[in-house]
Specification:
The structure holds 3 protein chains of 3 kinds.
Chain A lengths: L1 H12 L10 H6 L4 H30 L8 H23 L1 H7 L3 H4 L3 H12 L4 H29 L11 H15 L9
Helix pairs in contact in A: 1-8, 3-4, 3-7, 3-8, 4-5, 7-8, 8-9
Chain B lengths: L2 H45 L5 E7 L2 E7 L5 E11 L4 E8 L6 E8 L13 H4 L12 E3 L10 E3 L5 H24 L1
Parallel strand pairs in B: 6-7
Antiparallel strand pairs in B: 1-2, 2-3, 3-4, 4-5
Chain C lengths: L1 H8 L14 H6 L4 H25 L8 H23 L1 H7 L10 H11 L4 H31 L1 E2 L2 E2 L14 H19 L10
Antiparallel strand pairs in C: 1-2
Chain lengths: 192, 185, 203
């Protein structure tokens, strides 16, 4: 039950993009077409789920064990960067098809702040191993939902007459604001 | 490829970075701990009237803060409680009087409720209602009518029923457990 | 004078937020009040200037294969120090900014300047560029913070400016307000500088 709550909270109620503003760069940059958006979302979800688990292990068995929590940021960013590298190499060797869809997006994920943000939030909330995994997965799914909806809207937006000054990122952010309002409808979803 | 040089570079950077951070941590950690202690103490003082000193105690794995006045008499106990609000966790400090019967105060420490609506739970007008309520029976939330202290009632903030209800539910859930643990002692 | 150009670039022509659109996560997240925006701007400024300086000094000795890894470690080190400093001396601000301070590590602005500028230029130029970019980032955050705090709470630096007649626009301090404010400011800038915002986005 708690796992479902964590999942729903991370994906809808406290959507990473619309309430924490994490992962805005890829959200704005990669949301031009629905197909790319979905691939990007899947790749990110995959990395985020793994990150949730691995950073928990690092925090619990290395940083806390040796009493060096102040090395957390350095350790986490190294872990995320190498994780992304390993995932890329592994997918390239085992599944060329999957690599074709996800491959080019993987390197971009290292600097997606949603990934590091997820690791920090999970530690802040004292999640255990399984909960961290669920949190990572939920956050990834939330990111995928956000970026896919955005791409769908932007595909339609191409045919509309946007004022010249608002073209480009300005109108994208405006739409994101409206989506953020819509996602506020999920608040109170998880309360007693 | 120049493997030894790569390893050496990363090693040197790693060692320098680790050393710098260990030094910075040593310089700032006492301050950070001091800040955190002061913060907790201020929260406890605000929910336990007349308190001068605060002592941290542990009962059945629960962490409590015992307050004492200038004469060394117990002023009651305070505990931290977390509850799920409209948007996320609400963290509060709750005070119980020394007879373990009534709440002596409540302070909202952290919340991410909607600004202007739900986050008004941290206003004194709302939190003051809890002082003097009975801690051993259920607290009820009433809407659009005046709350009666004798009936152990609290009036919800208009427009923020869910946030108000979360605070009450959090109290109902935690207080009894804490009071029972304290009584056993 | 080339140094002056490097310094000026980040302030307007290539302002990280309004022109390059990088580092948007903290920009949107912490600008619900001026003080938060200013603190975030200064913390980023510190990290940016320190890491750019160090990186331009040691660039010769870093093998190409581990370039990014080394930069990231250096940046993370300075971020941790900034985080500790805030927590130790300004606990209230540190709490308000929360996890957004550590997230400077992945702020595209910092790594971006390290990779595209500091690693290719002399130390004075790199410092000038970092100072310019850092100031450009800071003033943009302060501007957004001013707009959102006045409209959303009727105050500035937590001092009440507008009287009781003013009904605060709550939406401005909510996440949606962050998107709207930045969007409208971008639109205005595009309108008055007569340029289209498209194709400036770098990622």
């Amino acid at each position: 039950m708690k796992l479902i709550l964590i999942f729903l909270s991370a994906s809808l109620v406290n959507n990473f993009v619309f309430t924490y503003f994490l992962g805005i760069c890829p959200f704005v940059g990669m949301s031009k077409r629905v197909e790319t958006a979905i691939s990007m979302g899947m790749a990110t979800t995959f990395v985020m789920t793994l990150t949730g688990g691995i950073t928990w292990l690092i925090e619990t068995y290395i940083l806390n064990y040796f009493g060096v929590p102040y090395l957390r940021y350095v350790a986490f960013i190294i872990v995320i960067a190498s994780l992304v590298q390993f995932v890329e190499m592994y997918i390239r060797k085992t599944s060329p098809n999957l690599y074709k869809t996800l491959g080019i997006f993987l390197p971009l994920i290292t600097t997606n702040c949603a990934v590091l943000g997820l690791a920090l939030f999970a530690i802040l909330r004292d999640y255990n191993f399984i909960e961290s995994l669920a949190y990572g997965f939920g956050a990834g799914v939330g990111f995928t939902i956000a970026i896919t909806i955005m791409a769908g809207i932007r595909e339609e937006l191409r045919f509309s007459d946007v004022p010249k000054a608002m073209q480009g990122p300005a109108i994208t952010l405006m739409v994101a604001g409206l989506l953020a309002l819509a996602f506020m409808g999920f608040s109170g979803f998880l309360t007693i | 490829m120049n493997a030894p040089r790569i390893v050496a570079t990363l090693g040197v950077i790693g060692i320098i970075s680790g050393g710098l951070l260990a030094w910075a941590n040593g310089a700032s950690e006492p301050r950070i701990i001091e800040n955190r202690r002061r913060e907790t103490k201020e929260a406890v003082l605000s929910v336990l009237p007349k308190t001068k000193t605060v002592k941290r105690i542990k009962i059945d794995g629960l962490i409590l803060h015992q307050g004492k006045d200038a004469a060394g008499q117990s002023t009651g106990y305070a505990f931290r409680a977390v509850t799920t609000g409209f948007q996320g966790d609400i963290v509060m400090m709750v005070g119980i009087d020394r007879d373990l019967e009534k709440f002596s105060g409540l302070k909202i420490l952290e919340n991410i409720e909607t600004p202007g609506l739900g986050n008004r739970i941290d206003e004194v007008k709302f939190t003051d209602q809890f002082s003097g309520l009975n801690g051993q029976t259920q607290i009820d939330l009433v809407k659009n009518e005046r709350a009666q202290k004798s009936k152990n009632e609290v009036e919800a903030i208009s427009g923020a029923t869910i946030s108000s209800r979360s605070v009450v539910a959090g109290l109902n859930k935690h207080a009894k457990k804490i009071i029972q643990a304290l009584k056993k002692r | 004078m080339e140094l002056k150009d490097d310094l000026k670039r980040g302030l307007w022509d290539q302002n990280p937020i309004f022109r390059l659109l990088i580092g948007l996560c903290p920009t949107l997240a912490v600008t619900n009040s001026v003080i938060n925006g200013l603190s975030m701007g200064l913390a980023t400024f510190f990290v940016l200037v320190s890491s750019s300086t160090i990186i331009s000094i040691i660039k010769k000795w870093i093998p190409a294969q581990v370039r990014l890894a080394s930069y990231v470690v250096i940046i993370a080190t300075f971020v941790t120090m900034a985080d500790m400093f805030l927590a130790g001396n300004f606990p209230v601000i540190s709490k308000a900014l929360g996890p957004y301070v550590p997230l400077i590590v992945v702020n595209c602005l910092v790594l971006g300047r390290a990779e595209t500028f500091a690693s290719k230029n002399t130390v004075p130029n790199a410092v000038a560029d970092a100072v310019g970019m850092g100031l450009g980032f800071t003033w943009a955050l302060v501007l957004l913070g001013v707009i959102r705090e006045i409209m959303g709470s009727g105050s500035l630096f937590s001092i009440q400016l507008l009287g009781n007649w003013f009904q605060p626009w709550l939406i401005m301090v909510l996440p949606a307000g962050a998107f709207f404010t930045l969007s409208i400011v971008l639109g205005l800038i595009n309108h008055f500088s007569g340029k289209k915002g498209e194709a400036k986005h770098q990622h």
